[in-house]
Amino acid sequence: MAQRFRPVTEPDTQQPGRPVPARSTGTGDPGPEGRHGASRDWADAAGNESPAASVRGFSKAFGSRVVLSGLDLDIAPGEFVAMIGRSGSGKSTLLRALAGLDGDYDGSLSVRGPVAVAFQEPRLVPWKKVLANVALGLRVRSPQSVASQALDEVGLAERAGAWPLTLSGGEAQRASLARALVREPSLLLLDEPFSALDALTRMTMHRLVLSLWSRHKPAVLLVTHDVDEALALADRVLVLGDGRIAHSARIPMDRPRDRDHPDLVALRLQLLTELGVPAESAF
Ligand code: ADP
Ligand code: MG
């Protein structure tokens, strides 16, 4: 039975015009542990657990074009966060920085523990078989057996010996998820991983991601342009706009969720309005 809830605007929603904090660690030396060395303890005086990811005053420009400006965000351990925003609003830019793929920014990022990313394109190495792709770069005693177990978890065990180019879109994304899983991430970054899949496969992938998440409990930051995907999966939905978190709504509702639940219908409309989509096109 789904719980009743009221979408709420979260305290980390940022108001336009808020100044960017002065501290800047983005262009500095990441140090021996790397930018994500994660040695800092984020637990507060009340003993609350430290965030899986913490972003403060994050700003990023490409030339004179400012994409993100003074963005703040905390993601709790095991929390499933979805981020929506118009194309070009800077979602991938933030994800790339959290993944440690782009260190040229202002502000600070802190990520606790290993991070793994899955992109819209599965990015499998075509000349390595599926199992070898999942095991690639793994620094454990028996990478093949760890990879094989991950493939089993995503329902792809029988394709372990296949070449990536022979996989369907859904299978390739399963392989990509397995490759992320074997890293046992405490933060899993997903950049529109299902947007190229057909509707049926996408729904199957949603179930798979939820079951993997409930078993492994990483914090997740899922970027999606699909409001319904965000509503189906996330504990919290963020709207990125004007370079920062423009809106944040919590969804304390059991999964699987009924997309026609009146509260979800109301929240869908609210999020579409935040995105600037006219209400009449929501149906
Ligand atoms: P989103 O993922 O929200 O669609 P991105 O984060 O990919 O948006 O990009 C945000 C903006 O930054 C876009 O205008 C994009 O063109 C620009 N941008 C992204 N990467 C680069 C780059 N390497 N060089 C120049 N501009 C870039
Ligand atoms: Mg993107």
Shape descriptor: globular
Give a list of the ligands.
Answer: adenosine-5'-diphosphate, magnesium ion
Rounded mean pLDDT score: 85
Count helical runs. 7
Our estimate of the beta-strand percent is 15-25%
CATH class of the domain at 42-123 and 184-281 reads Alpha Beta
Identify the CATH architecture of the domain at 42-123 and 184-281. Answer: 3-Layer(aba) Sandwich
User: How many individual β-strands?
Assistant: 9
CATH superfamily name of the domain at 42-123 and 184-281?
Answer: P-loop containing nucleotide triphosphate hydrolases
Please state how the strands of the largest beta sheet are arranged side by side.
Answer: 5-6-7-3-8-9
Helical fraction = 25-40%
Task: Note the topology.
Layout: E1 53-62, E2 65-75, E3 80-85, H1 91-98, E4 106-111, E5 115-118, H2 130-135, H3 143-153, H4 169-181, E6 187-191, H5 199-216, E7 219-223, H6 227-233, E8 236-241, E9 244-250, H7 262-274
Parallel strand pairs: 3-7, 3-8, 5-6, 6-7
Antiparallel strand pairs: 1-2, 1-4, 8-9
The structure holds adenosine-5'-diphosphate (ADP) and magnesium ion.
Notes on the protein architecture:
This protein is α/β, with parallel strands linked by helices and 283 residues long. The protein has a domain at 42-123 and 184-281: P-loop containing nucleotide triphosphate hydrolases (Rossmann fold). The chain has 7 helices and 9 strands, in the order βββαββαααβαβαββα. It has helices spanning 91-98, 130-135, 143-153, 169-181, 199-216, 227-233, 262-274, and strands spanning 53-62, 65-75, 80-85, 106-111, 115-118, 187-191, 219-223, 236-241, 244-250. The protein has a 6-stranded mixed β-sheet, sandwiched between helices. A 3-stranded antiparallel β-sheet has the order 2-1-4, covered by helices on one side. Strand 6, helix 5 (199-216) and strand 7 form a beta-alpha-beta unit. The longest helix has 18 residues, at 199-216. It is globular and about 45 Å long. Residues 1-12 and 15-45 have low confidence and may be disordered. Residues 62, 67, 85, 87-93 line the site of adenosine-5'-diphosphate.
